[in-house]
Amino acid sequence: MPHLATIAAFVLVPALGALGSREARAWLRGTGSVRQTLSNAGVGLVFLATQLALRGVLLGAFAELAARVPWKLPSSPAAAVLAFVLLDLVYYVQHRLEHAVPLLWAIHSVHHQSRDYNLSVSLRVGALSSLSTLGFHALLALVGVEPTLYAAVATAHAALLFTLHARTKRALGPGRFFNAPVFHRVHHGAEAEFIDCNFGGVLLVFDRLLGTFTPYTREPTFGVKGSPPVHDPLAANLSPFAALAAEVARRPTLWGKVRALLVRDP
């Protein structure tokens, strides 16, 4: 399943923490607080609960759509590579829209609330993320990706994405094609110079081609700009929607309310 890596992490991450080694602490918590790490894990547990409730339905919806598409990618290694690259392109588009569309940002901003940057941030996923992801991943069904191939490449993709929040600053090779934690940590920066950059998943080529790549030059400040820390898992998921609802209520016209949901003000 696409988020099998996230589910497995709830076994792996406590095991790493239990080791007590300097290396395990560096990857899991870095120099961050225990409270933030526990908050990230708590948010992840809420996400896991929604996964267990929705995953079958979401995969069923993908399979139903795929069954209605008359063309299919062939069963071959080349098709699997193509499906993976297409998925990473869809991830880039989705991720960029999640930062531009307030309604999607209310879901995705949960992931950016952490004031620390470490492997536990990979667990911090908004409870409704699966619903928004399905809408974008459905594009793969339209190009002929069958459910079994989708499940395979999405699981591999999710497992690789999980590693992006490791504390290391090492890049993979020259960093021209593949993403790495050192580039993704820039994406989590709260300063203006780091906003709206490095949206890529496994690949960096889309950021480089579309002008959204920013190199790592200094350590950012992490978190959501203008928002206080949120440690309670339920509040973490509800507070972005509360802020969005307040903004919608503040708009006097119907068009203004729709715009508040779909268009981010400069």
Rg over CA atoms? 19 Å
Q: How many helices does DSSP assign?
A: 11
How many structural units, i.e. domains?
Answer: 1
Total number of strands: 0
Range of strand content = under 5%
- Element-by-element helix/strand order: HHHHHHHHHHH
Estimated structural class: mainly alpha
Oligomer: single chain
As residue ranges, the low-confidence spans are 1-12, 14-20
Largest sheet: none
Mean pLDDT: 88
Q: Helicity, in percent?
A: 55-70%
Distance between the ends? 37 Å
- Taken from the alpha-carbon principal axes, the silhouette is globular
Describe the structure.
The structure is a single chain. With 266 residues, the protein is mainly α. The chain has one domain. It is 61% helix and 0% strand. It contains eleven helices and no strands. It has helices spanning 4-19, 22-28, 34-67, 77-100, 102-112, 129-142, 147-162, 181-187, 205-210, 233-250, 254-262. Helix 4 (77-100) crosses helix 6 (129-142), helix 4 (77-100) packs across helix 7 and helix 10 packs antiparallel against helix 11 (254-262).
